[in-house]
Amino acid sequence: MKKEWFEDWFSSKEYLDVYNHRDIKDAEKIIDLILANIKLNKNSNILDAACGNGRHSILLAEKGFNVTAFDLSKTLLNIGKKKAEQLNLNINFINADIRKFFINTQFDLVINLFTSFGYFDSDEENFRFIKNAFSMLNENGKYVLDFLNKNFVKKNLIPHSEKIVNDKIIIEDRKIWDNRVIKKIQIISGREKAEFMESVKLYSDDEIIHNLQKMGFKVDKLFGDYNGESFNKNSSGRFIAIFKK
Ligand SMILES: C[S@@+](CC[C@H](N)C(=O)[O-])C[C@H]1O[C@@H](n2cnc3c(N)ncnc32)[C@H](O)[C@@H]1O
């Protein structure tokens, strides 16, 4: 069977070069924002969905929370596991597909950060995890989604950009097609050339809120960036939403 774009891309050695600005410093900002807006006890259970290399999980475990984190990419999970071991942190890392993930733990917080949503073709598949998250949250639990802001992306899409990271030339071409933002990524390293793609469905803030309200969630707080600016449909770079049950 043909591999899906997200299986190849997030398992590649190039992903962390292309997103080298999405580092621990960047993670600290949204974790600070979340913790400033959600009251959690020291021993709270947190689930980091599509955790990648665990940069948010590590910060949360350092603060003393019980962290479970899952991702499809073994490559990224292994980086997270090694880092956690070095820091003597106990994080429950699980290799799983977000469409199938469900465990019998009651969480106080579920986080889904940095555009780890909208990868699949159908709405049912895209929203399935959030529906499951509702059942995995205790009665005062919160769900946080950090997604792109559709209106902003449509107005501000940069069709072409190039950068050099770790001696690699990274060429990114973006377009909007069939209500998705599609990115072609070419990485040239010496004589080697690799090509990947991303394809994310452009759900608007209203569509997301409507779908989550149907599941039983209520909007708690909305932000438009990691500094905690309030969300503005036209000018916010991100759609960061805290939902409560
Ligand atoms: C943009 S990255 C964000 C990672 C992490 N949340 C962070 O902020 O660093 C998207 C993540 O989604 C994961 N992912 C993609 N498809 C997935 C799937 N079907 N099931 C679980 N995780 C998936 C990727 O492996 C990747 O780690």
Task: Name some characteristics of this structure.
seven-stranded mixed beta sheet, single chain, 2 domains, 11 strands, 34% strand, alpha/beta, binds S-adenosylmethionine, 245 residues, globular, 8 helices, four-stranded antiparallel beta sheet, Rossmann fold
Q: How would you describe this protein?
A:
This protein is of the alpha/beta class. The protein is globular, with a radius of gyration of 18 Å. The chain starts with a helix and ends with a strand. The chain contains eight helices and eleven strands. A seven-stranded mixed sheet has the order 3-2-1-4-5-11-10, sandwiched between helices. A four-stranded antiparallel sheet has the order 6-7-8-9. Strand 4 (107-112), helix 6 and strand 5 form a beta-alpha-beta unit. It has two domains: 5-148 and 203-244, Vaccinia Virus protein VP39 (Rossmann fold); 153-198, no CATH class. Helix 3 packs across helix 4 (55-62). 31% of the residues lie in helices and 34% in strands. Bound molecules: S-adenosylmethionine. S-adenosylmethionine binds at residues 6, 10, 22, 50-52, 55, 71-73, 76, 97-99, 113-116, 119. S-adenosylmethionine is lined by residues 6, 10, 22, 50-52, 55, 71-73, 76, 97-99, 113-116, 119.
Offer a quick outline of the entry.
This protein has 245 residues and is of the alpha/beta class.
